[in-house]
Design a protein that fits this description.
CATH class of the largest domain: Alpha Beta
Number of helices: 12
Low-confidence stretches: none
Number of strands: 17
Strand order of the largest sheet: 5-4-6-7-8-9-10-16-3-17
Order of helices and strands: EHHEEHEEHEHHEHEHEHEEEHEEEHEHE
Strand content: 15-25%
Distance between the termini: 23 Å
Mean pLDDT: 97
CATH topology of the largest domain: TIM Barrel
Shape: globular
Number of domains: 2
Radius of gyration: 21 Å
CATH superfamily of the largest domain: Glycosidases
Oligomer: single chain
CATH architecture of the largest domain: Alpha-Beta Barrel
Length: 378
């Protein structure tokens, strides 16, 4: 695999000829839309069918039950695990089914591809947001914890899940140790029944980092309790924040380097975003709301608007600006260059693998690049 950045005057025919590749393959791999116009600064994956994979990694990708069947079918060959989003629970430890649709068809599809379906557990309240009072109730009660664990085990056996992912966010600082004990007890019960347990970790850079996202998560204790962890190294740029890279590599590196002081590399998966954001400008905190975009969609907007895609060397992320109907916009997203930086970080530190939030949008070049770098564990 090679990466080529489009220059003024380039077209698909000239690029294919220069690299000695089939133009139809170039179009297919990069999901280019007819009439195959390109944006200056656009990064293209040049597939020369040279495999240089060095080692096997685990790859997971969250998905909702309403994912398009075609997208799931295309993605599963590249996944070791499919965390299905998500089951909830009551304050007394009763399980709540996914509000987004039936999960059983996804479990069957995952198993048919040799991919492990994973039950994702989240503390969502009736408003659809993370509810730390639900967490507080369950993790501080041996009775409620025991009920939730038994309910999970029964459901996993019934439906064919192969593992559990605990995605609890905004944990109260006072519940930090109780949450660690909850994960430890749950993971032990899962292992006894033949399942594995992962836990999602907010992107901390130090043990004493303050803030509601961070104070309730003890990296060392959770790393010891769970079979593996996912570093949620994304959302620096987010819906209600100012325009910036979603997963700037300089910040991602800081999280990884801290995590390695608390958790073995063999237990760490790197979180990777499969999306970008389009912010209307000027940004006004509390007012401005960015629109979520797929990575292919972001490039299509640049092409349609005649925008030049630039690349931030510190964040190692692509971005561009455009104006539509008198409103300025700034877009940050992921391309094969920013993904290559993340894959290189995985290799540099010998991480267990990576996990995508989320796989609802098909981005073929990502998966081709990943498979050229690593063998996918099945």
């Amino acid at each position: 695999m090679e990466i080529y950045v489009v220059r003024p005057g380039d077209n698909v025919d000239s690029i294919a000829a220069a690299w000695g590749v089939n133009v139809e393959q170039l179009i297919y791999d990069n999901q280019l839309e007819f009439p195959y116009a390109l944006a200056v600064g656009q990064a293209l994956l040049i597939n020369q069918f040279v495999r240089n994979a060095t080692r096997a990694v685990s790859v997971s990708g969250y998905a909702y039950p309403y994912i398009r069947p075609w997208v799931l079918e295309q993605t599963l060959p590249y996944l070791s695990e499919l965390p299905i989003f998500s089951y909830g629970f009551t304050a007394e430890g009763e399980l709540l089914p996914p509000p987004y649709g039936d999960d059983e068809w996804m479990i069957r599809e995952a198993l048919s591809f040799g991919t492990q379906p994973i039950l994702t557990l989240t503390p969502f309240g009736v408003d659809g947001n993370f509810n730390n009072q639900l967490i507080h109730s369950v993790v501080n009660s041996a009775e409620y914890t025991g009920r939730l664990v038994q309910n999970l085990l029964a459901l996993m056996e019934e439906k064919g899940y192969r593992g559990l992912d605990i995605d609890f966010e905004y944990i109260l600082a006072e519940d930090r140790d109780a949450f660690s004990a909850f994960v430890r007890r749950t993971a032990e019960a899962m292992r006894s029944a033949g399942y594995h347990t992962s836990v999602a970790l907010a992107p901390k850079t130090s043990a004493g980092q303050t803030g509601l996202l961070y104070e309730g998560k003890d990296y060392r204790a959770l790393g010891e309790a769970a079979d593996h962890v996912l570093l949620m190294t994304y959302e620096w740029g987010y819906t209600y924040g100012p325009p910036m890279a979603v997963a700037p590599i300089n910040q991602v590196r800081r999280v990884v380097e801290y995590a390695l002081t608390e958790i073995p590399a063999s237990k760490i998966d790197l979180g990777i975003p499969n999306y970008g954001y389009d912010w209307p400008l000027p940004f006004e905190r509390g007012v401005t709301k960015a629109v979520t975009l797929g990575n292919v969609q972001a490039v299509q907007i640049a092409v349609e608007q005649g925008a030049q895609i630039r690349f931030d060397d510190l964040a190692e992320s692509p971005f561009f600006t455009y104006t539509e109907q008198g409103i300025d916009h700034e877009v940050w997203f992921e391309d094969v260059r920013s993904l290559e930086a993340k894959f290189s970080l995985m290799e540099e530190y010998g991480l267990r693998g990576c996990g995508y939030w989320q796989i609802m949008k098909w981005f073929r070049a990502n998966w081709l690049l990943l498979r050229s770098r690593f063998y996918i564990m099945k």
